[in-house]
Known about the structure:
CATH class of the largest domain: Alpha Beta
Strand content: 15-25%
CATH superfamily of the largest domain: FAD/NAD(P)-binding domain
Oligomer: single chain
Amino acid sequence: MTTVSPNVESDRAATPTTDREDTVCVIGAGSAGIAMCRALALRDIPFDCYERRSEIGGLWRYPAQGGSTCAYMSLFANTSKTVMQYPSYPMPDGYPDYPHHTQVARYFDDYVDHFGLRKHIRLETEVTRVEPATGGGWAVTLGDGTVHRYRAAMVASGGRHGVPVYGQFDGTFTGREIHAVDYDGPADFAGQRVVILGLGATSADIATEVSRVAAATHLSVRTGHYVVPKILEGHPIDKLSPFMKKLSVEQRRPLLTLMIKIVHGDMTAYGLPAPPYKPGQGPLISNSEFLPAIVHGRIAPKPTITAVEGRMVRFADGQAVEADAIIHCTGYRIAFPFLDDALVSGGEDAPPLYHLVVPPEIPGLYFIGLIHSMMSLMPLAEFQSEWVGDLLTDAVGLPSRAQMWSQIRRARRRQDKRFHSSSGHLLVDPNEYERLIAAERRTYATTDRADVRTVTRWKR
């Protein structure tokens, strides 16, 4: 267990040039950051938000201005708008069930303007250092070298998409080799022989569209996953009924298993590895075109790559193919380059956080959106932000440090039993997590419940 006192200035801490001890710092103006800004604005808590890119929206912005992005020209959401949207502000009725990334980015703009947040957001401003300040609070260093002191810091930047991870194999590949974060679209791969590493939502999308123009598309898969269509009986597959939302992951599993069996059958029938877990123990891949691309012969599933020699790619089953390009859809490593390692160490795949938000030993530091939802991040980021807003106004409190550590350990043990290890400790069922945060706010309320703000669900 790492203990870090916010009242002890580190050796690297600079003297703040501006003292804003009554103000909160929000780092990042992506989907989580703007949700936190809204919660602060509703409570009249002064705040500054810094975003290193030239526009809000974070990883949903394409092309990237001032940073990398997970978006690409043809990207559509893989969760439906009713599941994806913020509870307080719905997506327009005119949006399709699965909006294009440009529509999602426009929705973020509308959200920010609706709640009057833009004046608090400084674009093209990078945060390079966040550390405990002398006398309390947090010293935040910006890219121009200025240092500002804040009462609290909200980390809503980087997180699960901090650093791209590349697949490992012996040898040197002499063709083109990129990570999914640098993928712009299929045009660059027209007529080429392409090998794609990894099986997830991104690789299924990229493999499907590359296969339409490539001479050959090979998909190297280590771990199998369940694939479901985006639409079932005319409705988005992730839009659960009120009854289904009340069920636990385990209670929904028989229905999910039956649906997958009826719609797609066994994943091994498509040449993919059998998932090493039961439906619901890991995220689903929602894609209506991926499996048809396999059965049409446009995508050829392959096992893991063992070695490369020039343009030759060798697989674990002894087969080999010539390739012009390799695309690594192999995920990301969590990283917060502006935080000292001592502040975020101690977790296998993330810092140990109470309810995935609060570091028990570090008052005044909060993580928003560092979570892997089975459906969509945005609603959960808004619930997290409401809770943190309550904490900052003392409308609710926190349990003791010992109680928080006990809960973290219990949650991780439960996570290990419920979910497959490849999902990490950040995977949550969104409906269960919403109830968890609501119960936390009720249990530790320090004021009359009428004074504690809640997310207002938009009524059409």
